[in-house]
Amino acid sequence: MLRESHILLFSIFIAGLCSIVYELLIATTGSYFLGDSITQFSLTIGVYMAFMGVGSYLSRFVKDDKLLAQFIGFELLLALCGGLSVPLLYLAYALDISVQAMSVTLTAVIGTLIGLEIPLLSRLMEKHYSLKANLSNVLSIDYFGALLATLLFPFIFLPWLGIFKTSLMFGLINLSIALSLLWYFSSQILDKPKYQLRMALILVSVILIGTMASSARLNKAWNGHVFDDPVVHSEQTQYQQIVMTRHKNDVRLYLNGGLQFSSIDEYRYHEVLVHPAMQRRDNIKNVLVLGGGDGLAVREVLKYAGVEHVTLVDLDPAVARLARENHYLKDLNANALNSEKVSVWHGDAMVFLQQIKRKFDLVIVDLPDPKTVSLARLYSLQFYRLIGRALTPNGIFVTQATSPFFAKEAFWSIRNTVAASGMKDVKTFFANVPSFGEWGFVMGCQSNCQKPLKFEHISTRFYHHELDSAMQVLAGDQKVDKEVVSTLDRPNVLYLYLDGWRYWN
């Protein structure tokens, strides 16, 4: 009897472990494909909790004489649905099926099955403990399993296995409940349902193990279907999915499916990001680059002989490692990150600014668009004030600011937020980057943003002094009347960005 109760307690622990991971997997994958992490996690949590209630209600219809067999059957179904949740979301994205609808459907099904677990396990344990002890054991062990899962998911499984394999791994872990119960309680199950459950166990095991074994080929096929050009590098890190493609001379980098650059026209973007600011001062020695782990902005900075040191801050070490080691990217960035003048710090840009005591002559912000709340904070009033604190009295700061055509209200929100941060002078720049369309940049200066100087010739393909004034000319369809500022408390830039791109996407 003691061993029987231990098997049931083990089942409760595994149930708690897997249940929270399925929730994290679905919300994280949805954020990868759809952006707006707040919406994805809110929807997942809300639907998940609601359908747990549905499952708990439905548990009353499971009869006592079929309790064990049906519980094992539910666990097999949960292992299958939970384990295949991420592969199914990948498939939906590849086939242009609504990822949002698939995400909600999977969450509802998994939530219902998880809602069945605790009531049914509690009933199975009735003969071992009193009601008070039973509820205490079931809930405490379930919650402890959930806590362990929240620690294992971001620090162990996601960086080691990636999100695709993690989903399958937890499906197999979930399968251990059905396996242990079917093995230990075999004598308590009638022959016919026992045979059916064994066949189902074998089938689910084969599906999950087979998908796990084929994960590399499946991901390669997925990449080949989703990306137009042949994939030359693909990896899942703790932070994002990194994919590099190449077709003839066009090398492209994607993070979580979003294009970061095309080698055909990236010079337009990076020259406008760097040179208008660099050309406005003749004594820029220390430069801070936030983001830009690909090294392309650093490449432009290093064209100036007077620059003594460049500090690059990028969250994901894998991007900087790729920029240092991948021959396609090294050729493109002129081996910039291996320069003796460059030091790389891996971590959050806002945390870095809060901790750094040094001052910089120029701060370049080359971060992804503000499409999630974690990115929107890096376009906030508080963030720009931290940048101002890190600048010398004559320092300059420049940020990419998304498209003034596709997301013009977000662009102007960034401009207004920079102005509200205390910068003495603010300028906006516009450039056509064919891979992205019309693109915007915002410059903030501690003193006046004077006209470009003519102190040394810098090799550029797009930017030049005469173009500087033209890039500041505003088209009629780029104007907005609102003066919206984005803060940590109210990340307005996030909502404006999503609203702006929603139509075009």
TrEMBL record:
InterPro entries: PABS, PABS_CS, SAM-dependent_MTases_sf, Spermi_synthase. Keywords: Cell membrane, Membrane, Polyamine biosynthesis, Spermidine biosynthesis, Transferase, Transmembrane, Transmembrane helix. It holds the Pfam family Spermine_synth. It is an enzyme of class 2 (transferase). Its main location: membrane. It is a multi-pass membrane protein. The active site is at 366 (proton acceptor). GO terms for molecular function: spermidine synthase activity. It catalyses: S-adenosyl 3-(methylsulfanyl)propylamine + putrescine = S-methyl-5'-thioadenosine + spermidine + H(+). Residues 211-446 form the PABS domain. The keyword Ligase does not apply. It is found in: Cell membrane. Catalyzes the irreversible transfer of a propylamine group from the amino donor S-adenosylmethioninamine (decarboxy-AdoMet) to putrescine (1,4-diaminobutane) to yield spermidine. Homodimer or homotetramer. Belongs to the spermidine/spermine synthase family. This is Polyamine aminopropyltransferase. It comes from Pseudoalteromonas obscura. The gene is speE.
